Amino acid sequence: MADPNFLHKIKTGLILSIVLLSMFPFQAVMAETPSDDDVNRVASQLYCPVCENIPLDACPLEACRLWRDLIRQRLAEGWTDREIKDYFVAQYGDRVLGEPPRQGLNWMLYILPPVMVFGGLFFAYAKLRQKPEEQPLGKEIITDPYLEQVERDLRNLD
Amino acid sequence: MIAPFGYLTLALAFLLAVYGLGAVIWGIYQRSVPWIESARLALVLIFPLVTVSLVAITVLLLDHRFDVAYVYSVINRGMPAYLRFTALWGGQSGSLLFWTWLMAAFAMIFALKNWRDSFDLLPWSLAAIFLLVGFFLLLNVFIENPFERFWLLPDGSRILSVFQPRGAFPLMPQDGMGLNPLLRHPGMIWHPPTLYIGFVGFLIPFALAISSLATGKKDNRWIEIARPYVLVSWVFLSLGLVLGMRWAYDILGWGGYWGWDPVEVVALMPWLSATAYLHTALLQKRNGSFKRWNLSLSILTFVLVILGTFLTRAGILASIHAFADSDIGVPKFVITAIITLGSLGLLIYRWPELGDEQELEFRLSREVFTIFSNLVLLSILAVCFLGVFYPIISELLTDTLITVGPAWYKQILGPLFTLLMLLLGVCPLIAWSLTRVSILKQKLQIVLPLSLLPPIFAWLLGGVSNLFVLFTFWLVSFSGLVIMREYTRSVGKAWNRSPGRVGQALWSPIQRNRRRFGGLIVHLGIVLMSIGIIGIEGLQQQTQVTLAIGESVSIGGYEFTFTGLDNYNTADGRNVTESVLTITQNGRPLGALYPQRDFYPAMGMAITQPGLQSNLGRDLYAILIDWRPVTQDEATFRVYINPLVNWLWIGTGVLVLGSIMAVWPERVKARQGVTGYLVEN
Question: Domain limits of chain B?
Fold first, then answer.
């Protein structure tokens, strides 16, 4: 009797192999011919490592053209966008990313803005609500006897 | 002789500024009107003197005087006259002189005002203006001198000096280095001057705020005197920012108009605080509230201007705008610190005395909505501040270089701009003091259903499926319709007053209330600009493709066919590679695009000139990326369809029109009696 666990492993392996093999032709075609748009999709998320604030897809420098060629090559090898970005970060540091990664001190960039906005709105709200006696919206408190009489007459008219 | 003459007039202007500062301080101390009057006249005189210097450097630029170091660094013989003229603000010392000249112009206009009824605000305003004009003159006279010339000493060494050193020979290079190719564009004529006027004009509201604080005045006169300066500066700053967008769109070759470059953001920051100020100044005028807030905003705006010039010119910001880095960082830092700490000190000192005359309550009123719009504007400003300074903080604290790019700004600011647009739409519907919900519902009865039509059409006919884009389309439709409603109601009332007179009915509401309708037209301009921004941000399509001659690419229903490539040299020293992309839509010819690449061999730089075809619905925009050099039978293009982008430029025109309407002087009031400085004090 064969070990059921062993059979299960064989079955799983076969299924996985079939799935991977079925994906292979598609992967191979995709990987061999990354279009310029594929390259720009990745390059637009990266910044030129040597220039001042220019996205890699728009940078006219020869060095940037070579980096775009590198992206093309990596895509052809089947690398994902994430892997290519990680590769650039490993080579040139976080500054190549247009959007700072959510880690360490960078969290400041993502936490501070909502704190500032909601804090400001709450402060303004609290300051405006400080008035002690709030009158109901649209209703005046009438203390003048003449005006009270007018109000009564108007109600009687209705 | 021109260079020494230009320098001497500049030095004289500096001495006058020093005298003026001394005279006005002495006048304040002694309460002496003659000393203050003398200082005022000194301020008036500075402008003609700086004008002479400005004319001198312009003549040197137009006359190819390469013995002057500044001229040598920014022009060459191949540059046309208009670019030689614009080179005045193309380098550090020239742009600084131009800045000082504009400052002196604003100061002169301010000094020539009729001061009979507000003389008490004059002395401290003069002191603040002299301090700042004097500072910029000092930079030009001692650090960034545009009149220095090349000299050859007998020992063979070279030296820079305005005046001829003993035994030295003048050096006259045959040609200059020329302007940075990115700056060789018609945009150079208008973008820097409009932006500079916008920045510099905030000097006057700043000086008035300082004066109001220093004298302890609690009334609104400083707001009223500052109003035209704020509006003029605001509209020029708006125009300058948009002209910069157009320039970027035309020359930087990435199919966009705003890249959230740090220098762009730094220029946007004073615009945001000035916009906030323009709204809360109305509240102060109405009921005496927001005194502290308005003083703070006026000061903040000018501090941001000076901080921006410090960050840009000291080379602290990594930016594609860094054309004019120099060593004026330390003095700029010192003046930024002086005006920031000085203003802050004055604000703290006067804070307890500046309570509001009328406290605002939380209810459905224009006042409350104005406060919330103000908070949103300042939140955007705070986000911009964080985005600009975070890379510096990160480098200092963690030694990590960080880029804060468009992706971050769009993610954080997208909701805030959306909220701002909603408030822009709702505010005109809310009355001052109080609005009943029933009245608001009544006002929305027609506007709300009508505002749904544009996004529904965009969805059904335009094929727009992005929900956020459809929502923002609704927002701008709603805001635009609210403005139209306000106008048509006023036209209706005017028609009832004098039936049959169409022209009068259309014009009289604006004529009767220029400030209100000027403001509404400015808002309409912003609505139209938003349409352009939504179009390019939310609906842009692009593709990059390599084509052989005769091959085509299709995008957005248009077909672009590569039909030719040419390479030629121009008289101004460029080597131009120009391509032709013919356009068809459903087989119908629509002309051609001519994207080109200009190479400047002397500087080793290439500039992308996109091919562009525009109409109100879209721009067809193509960039030449690369090509096969010898056979010229294959080229790579990046083609963009930018829907609605032209509404961005049209909206700017409407915004300017509304601003002119709002700032146009009303009928002159009868002169009030003299309230002299001595009488007041």
Answer: 1-184, 541-646
On whether residue A138 sits in a domain, the answer given is no
- Does ipTM exceed 0.90? no
- Helical residues (DSSP H) of B288-405, grouped into ranges: 291-313, 329-350, 366-398
Residue A79 within any structural domain of the chain: yes
What distance in Å separates the CA atoms of residue A96 and residue A89, rounded to the nearest whole number? 6
Q: Could you say which of B364, B375, B542 has the minimum Cβ distance to residue A121?
A: B375
Range of the domain at A29: 16-125
Task: Give the CATH number of the domain where residue A35 resides.
Answer: 1.10.8.640
Name every chain A residue with its beta carbon within 8 A of the beta carbon of B318: 52-53
| Dist CA B366 CA B433 (whole Å) | 7
A121 touches chain B (CB under 8 A): yes
Among A71, A72, A117, A125, the strongest candidate for a mutation testing the B interface, having the largest count of B CBs within 10 A, is: A117
Tokens read off for B390:
């975070």
Decide if A5 is inside a domain.
no
Question: What number of CA atoms fall less than 13 Å from residue A101's CA on the CB side?
Answer: 15
Q: What is the pLDDT of residues B517-548, one digit of tens each?
A: 999 999 999 999 999 999 999 999 999 999 99
E strands, A44-148, where? none
Of A39, A52, A128, the CB nearest to B322: A52
- What are the residue ranges in chain B where pLDDT is below 70? 253, 314-326, 356-359, 666-681
Residues B189-208 pLDDT 10s: 889 999 999 999 999 999 99
pLDDT at position A137 over 80: no
pTM over 0.90: no
Answer whether B636 sits within 8 Å of A57, measured CB to CB: no
Beta strands B605-609 and B596-600: pairing type?
A: antiparallel
Distance in Å, alpha carbon of A22 to nearest chain B alpha carbon: 30
**Count of Cβ atoms closer than 10 Å to residue B410 Cβ:** 13
CA B301 to chain centre: 12
